[in-house]
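Thanks for the sequence, V.! I ran Solute:Na+ symporter, SSS family right away. Repeating your input here for the record:
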Amino acid sequence: MQTNYVALAVVVAYMAGLGLLTSIVQRSVTTATTFTSGTTGSGVPAVLVGLMLMSEFIGTSASVGTAQEAYISGISASWNIIALGAGFLFYAWFLAGKYKESGHNTISGVFAEVYGPSTKVATSLVMILALQIVAVALYAGGGAILGVLLAVDRTLATVICGVVAVLYVFVGGMRSVVYTNVIHSLMKYAGVGIALYFGLTKVGGLSELQTHLPPAMFSWTNVGVSQIFAWFIAGMGATFSTQYVIQAINTVETRQKAQVASFSAAVLLIPFGIATALIGMCSLMLYPGIKSINAFSALIADMNGPMAGIVAAGLAASLFGTISAISVSTATLLYKDFYTRFVSAADDERRSLVFVRVTTVVVGLLPIALAIYTPNVLQITFLAKAIRASLSVLVLLVFYAPWLGTKGGALFSIIGSMVATIAWFLMGNPFGIDNAYVALVVPLVVMVTSSLLAWRRTGPTMPKQELR
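Predicted structure:
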């Protein structure tokens, strides 16, 4: 394996162009509020927000991870991304307007309004943990690709990915994320499209792929119906409760535009999932016996310089687009729920802006160590989604059944479901039950039980006012 200098040059040029755009955007970023919300007095077009949302959910963990799973299970691996598209459809109808009208751009702020301030810190900690786990999967996938381009060990490539990924976002904040992620979205589609074309051409077309691979690889349920449902629970739950989705939705002005943004993201996600699965299947036919995590990168290694450069730039876009959103979202939670509460008032704009920018860099670098030892990108990705899915149960209750549960029940639900979900994952999903089901059931059981106990003590109470 040799360093692909042409492909590497394309990636460097692409990142340099984004760096220039970010430096222009940062001129409008003068306060911590502007940094975290992305607004400067005028809203962001809904379609651009939709592109950004799609971009944030298809990082290297989605592209490399889906190809990895498809190398093992075939076309059914695409359900993990299709589930996200379905999640955004439900989000558009039931939650986009609710979030927009709530006036909050953190999920912890929404919870605190109904369940009290004690839930605010717990929610922030759970969300920060989930986002950091996503970053681990992102760096692991990015390292696999960069290792091919540089002809270096994946460990070194992962470290390089982590360092480079956080350098440009801290300058411009959420507003730079919106505009650079639009470019990232287009580059991702171009990269995956070229990779799919190259793979299908290499194997002799879709008919040859069907001839040489087992029929089970083309079954839409080969990965298992239970796994598919688990992906839907985790994927849809993640769209309902992820911090950077809420922040992105709050960059548009109206409920209708929030719905347009959500629909746009859903439409763009579905073909991406099918394409990346087919790439993994092509890799299986061309390179049997390789490590599954290298399914996508092996295909890139076979391409000529310019073609490999475009595909690699698309995957770099997957990494940088999502990690930037994660870093800004995590910094926002730390700023709003910890810094302004325990350290300094929000009216000291200079110190606040310094805090969120430094925090953005720090939280972007922390996941690197774990990424080096991550063998299965998709499993780690969906652990993070399952953790967020537990929060989505409370999101639905807040907006549609605020009378169910108690403040104490909500707090215990947030902490208990996180611990139970992670423990179930570490035990290897006993009895074949995915951790996503645990994430769904625990908060429901806790909230119903807390309501019953409260009713026994005090009798029936009037429902709390619904958030509008």
